[in-house]
Amino acid sequence: MPSAVPRHVHRPPREHRVLGPTGLTVVCGASLFITSLDSTAVNVALPTLRSELAAGPSQSAWIVDAYTLTLAVLLLLAGALGDRLGRRTMFRAGLLVFGVGSLGCALAGSPDQLIAVRVLQGCGAALLGPNALSTLTTAIEDPVRRARAIGFWAAIFGLAAAVGPLVGGSLIDALGWRWIFLVNLPVVVLALAASVRIPETRGGAPRPFDPVGLALGAVAVFGVTELLIHGAHAGFGGVTPLVCGALAVGGGVAFVAVEKERAHPVFPLALLRRPTFTAATVSAVLAFAILAGFLFVSSVYWQQQRHASALETGLALLPATLMIAVVSPLSGRLLLVVGARRLLVGSGLLLALGAGLLALAAGGDGYLPYAAGYLVLGLGFGLVNPPITNTAVTGLPAQQAGVASALASTSRQLGSTLGVAVLASVAAGPHLDQRRAWLIALGLGLAVAAINALAGRPRRRVEAAAAPGAKQPERAGAR
Prior knowledge:
Blueprint: H1 21-52, H2 57-85, H3 87-107, H4 111-139, H5 143-174, H6 179-182, H7 184-194, H8 211-234, H9 239-261, H10 275-305, H11 310-316, H12 318-338, H13 340-361, H14 367-394, H15 401-426, H16 434-455, H17 457-465, H18 468-478
Helix pairs in contact: 1-2, 1-4, 1-5, 1-7, 1-10, 2-3, 2-4, 2-8, 2-15, 3-4, 3-7, 4-15, 5-11, 5-12, 5-14, 8-9, 8-15, 10-11, 10-13, 10-14, 10-15, 10-16, 12-13, 12-14, 13-14, 13-16, 14-15, 15-16
């Protein structure tokens, strides 16, 4: 009789069961959270690292930038590997490498050792990010659930930026700086255990690798970063700045020349002809430069000049970080109402206003002027990330979801790298000069607003001549 058939006979074997949309979102989101947390929490530890590991100013900058620069360089390769070899495979490899790197960071005994292991940690994070996002976009078939998952994913960046200084400060004061890396290990273990139930997906047409383009891009970005960091602390005279400048210019020119000739370049230069994509990518670089510079400079200021503890520093930054956490999820909803372009214009103006308030507050002893600047800066940054993700990810071919999501993330990490190199370096010295950093941040915020205000004008004329049915898809994502 049918009723006598045991119900478990009809269930698939345990190893063949896969996580549903909610489970996938939680597991993939947890991996993004710990990798993003590491790029924010470490800023609060820098004064402690200077005293306990005798890290110099340039070494402090590289402790942050070794991680973000590795991410920026390898994200595109990691996405292509996921398209070819399987995204779950690369996701699990990323968890293992990130876990080993986190343990190595916790055991480091010198600044140079910490910088080296931060590179390994960045390799793992690069494998995690694009393959987790492309798994969500390809494994979740329902459009509504997929949109919610991507919105949650975008909000995690803001959440990690929000809680990073506070969590980092709490761990440093209670247990020591090594725990900002050890705290990653339980999450890695749990994510690895759950990853056996993540479906394996691949790109429909795997992209050939472009190691030459990848290497040239890495050389150019490294040259710019080292030039800025070295120049700020040791001057721009001498052999090192000359070599770094040659690497930056030569690597950049060669990268463009090689990529133009590639059938499958690591970065499709043709995408730069799309105004909304270009504006979103540049906006990501500028906005994350402001965020990374803000976290670096503010953490050093409160601990080095105001003699606050790591936890007190996290609390001082709470107006910005709390605003980021609250506004980031709401930004996804605003995206559907006002469109990505207008949201990016508004966020750029708010970033500029917040930086301007901090420039006015610099040098004063009162906390309220700083709190006002942090509040406005947090509001601007909370609004900026979802429209960047929406425009960048949805504007690229679906069959190469790994590369598409990697392009969205690469611009963020590149911005973080340059933000520390520029803002932290111009403020460096025995007496931290915040005002110069905030004035640069003000200009970057205005640039975000201007670029996105101009990016939509040509397209608006095209839309006006198009049929009503053709307007609708464009309006939600790039208006």
